[in-house]
What does this fold into?
Amino acid sequence: MKILFVCLGNICRSPMAETIFKKMIAEEGLEENVEIESAGTGDWHIGEKADPRMRGHAEKRGYLITSLGRTVAIDDFKYYDKIIAMDDSNVQNLQKICPPEFLHKIEKMTNYSQEYSHTEVPDPYYGGDKGFQLVIDLLEDACKGLSAEVKTKIS
It folds into this structure.
């Protein structure tokens, strides 16, 4: 199974989701069955590391974000089985560029939430520490739900 996490700039939420989910999948011993990457709908941060604040908060929780920013490519819609957006705006941006036959692959991250009732993973870029911490909390929760679904599909 191939999964692409998407946010606006690919420097906060989607690389964090990628990192969390890769760790979960590795802990389950499923890394050979699941390909995970992240991208952004905007092109401001191509080739850049994740936001230093996000990397710092990630490290405090035992995560190391190593991905570099990139934008969603048209070929991604064909290649990935799931394209998981962080918020409604990302979903709309993806739908605008997605070939119609692949629209069914676009989902929202919070669809997999188990403990939290947030309908979006908020962008922490203009906020403080609490925003970054909340994003990690929401992503850890949603990644657990996604992991459970992935395990049933590949086993």
